[in-house]
Design brief:
Length: about 130
C-alpha cells in the first residue's frame, strides 16, 4: 500500500486502537418493518396483560350486579307466592267450615233437602219506560 493508512486499523487485545483510542463498532439499526413488528408484539402483550388484570379486578363487581338482579327477581317471585299461599290458606279455612261447604255445594248446583230449583229465563218482550 502506498498510503500510510492500513486497510484495518491495528488494535491491541483490549479492542483499543494503536494510540489507545477506542474504536466504535457500527451500531445495528433494525429495519422499519422489524421495529414495527416489535412494537406490535409489545402492544399485544401489554394489552393482553391489562385486559386480564382488569377483567379479574372487575369480575366481582359484574357478578355482584348480576346477583343483585337475580335477587330482585327472586324476591318478587317470593312475594307473589306468599300472596297466593295466603289466599289459598284463607280459602282452605273457609271451606273447612260448614258455611263454606254449603257455599261450594250451592255453586255446583246442589240443593238442601226440601228446596226446589228455579230457572228464570228472560222474555223477549221487554219494554223500557
Amino acid at each position: 500500500m502506498s498510503n500510510n493508512r492500513q486497510a484495518y486499523p491495528q488494535t491491541n487485545r483490549k479492542g483499543n486502537g494503536v494510540n489507545g483510542a477506542r474504536l466504535r463498532r457500527k451500531r445495528y439499526i433494525p429495519s422499519l418493518s422489524l421495529r414495527l413488528a416489535i412494537i406490535a408484539i409489545i402492544f399485544a402483550v401489554t394489552s393482553t396483560v391489562c385486559y386480564t388484570a382488569l377483567s379479574n379486578i372487575s369480575r366481582p363487581y359484574v357478578l355482584g350486579a348480576q346477583q343483585t338482579s337475580v335477587i330482585a327477581e327472586r324476591t318478587q317471585a317470593l312475594k307473589q307466592l306468599d300472596a297466593e299461599n295466603n289466599k289459598l290458606s284463607q280459602q282452605c279455612a273457609f271451606l273447612s267450615r260448614p258455611d263454606g261447604v254449603e257455599y261450594e255445594a250451592r255453586l255446583k248446583g246442589y240443593l238442601m233437602p226440601g228446596e226446589r230449583s228455579l230457572v228464570l229465563t228472560p222474555t223477549s218482550h221487554t219494554t223500557n219506560h
